[in-house]
Design a protein that fits this description.
Largest sheet: 8 strands, antiparallel, barrel
Order of helices and strands: EHHEEHEEHEEHHE
Strand order of the largest sheet: 1-3-2-8-5-7-6-4
Length: about 230
């Protein structure tokens, strides 16, 4: 089983577009017979989140995760072609997935909270092994300790599957309470201003160690699991 993450980019996606991506387009993807499918859309519930950073133009408007037996097979190829018809541009990546905190998915329904998707780039001064250690081994516990995270997925990019895909080395998805879209205290799980300052200071120090404070995109989304790749048959 392999996992492919597809980034759909669009300048001004409205809620009708978001509903189409997770609804009819999602149904078409499932009809291809893929093993698993999760769709994240930047809809009205999260669009004005404080935790939004953008370097790409047009920005990422949806993130589609596909599980299939072959990243280079007919199902994934057809899925990418289908999704390309519904956005201004897209990029697909083969990834390896780690899940420090499994998301509390409800099949077919919106996952509780909001999913913040971060696109990471490895700084040139860090070799891949050092970068991965600082991100996954050192930073993971710090992120969990300093934020109100209740779902946490890390995707290490193996390679791009589409031409001219932006250089991205990691794709993170973290789930936060809905209030965290507009409230930093809720985002960091802080009891008061002093606690918020302490948590933010520790978080910045941790992310700085692997270059996740610069040249990063963060995309607030609503998450929908449409087919679990791990459901028993």
């Amino acid at each position: 089983m392999e996992k492919v993450v597809v980034l759909l980019r669009a300048a001004e996606p409205d809620d009708q577009w978001c509903e189409r991506i997770r609804g009819p387009v999602g149904d078409e993807l499932l009809d291809l017979g893929i093993a698993g499918l999760a769709t994240n859309v930047r809809d009205g519930a999260v669009r004005d989140s404080l935790m939004t950073l953008t370097t790409l133009a047009p920005p990422v408007a949806a993130v589609v995760s596909i599980w299939a037996q072959q990243s280079y097979g007919a199902q994934v190829t057809a899925a990418i072609e289908l999704l390309a018809d519904h956005c201004e541009s897209l990029a697909a990546y083969l990834v390896t997935e780690s899940v420090p905190i499994p998301p509390p998915d409800r099949l077919g329904d919106r996952c509780p909270g909001f999913a913040n998707v971060a696109l990471l780039r490895r700084p040139p001064e860090l070799d891949r092994a050092t970068w991965l250690t600082r991100w996954q081994v050192d930073h993971t516990p710090a992120a969990i300790e300093t934020q109100a995270t209740f779902g946490y997925t890390q995707n290490v990019v193996v390679r791009a599957l589409t031409p001219d895909a932006p250089a991205i080395d990691g794709i993170v998805e973290e789930l936060f309470p809905d209030a965290a879209t507009t409230d930093l205290h809720a985002f960091f799980g802080a009891a008061d201003d002093a606690d918020l300052h302490d948590r933010m200071t520790r978080m910045v120090a941790s992310t700085s160690a692997f270059g996740a404070t610069d040249h990063i995109d963060t995309v607030p989304t609503s998450r929908y699991l449409l087919r679990s790749p791990f459901a028993s048959s």
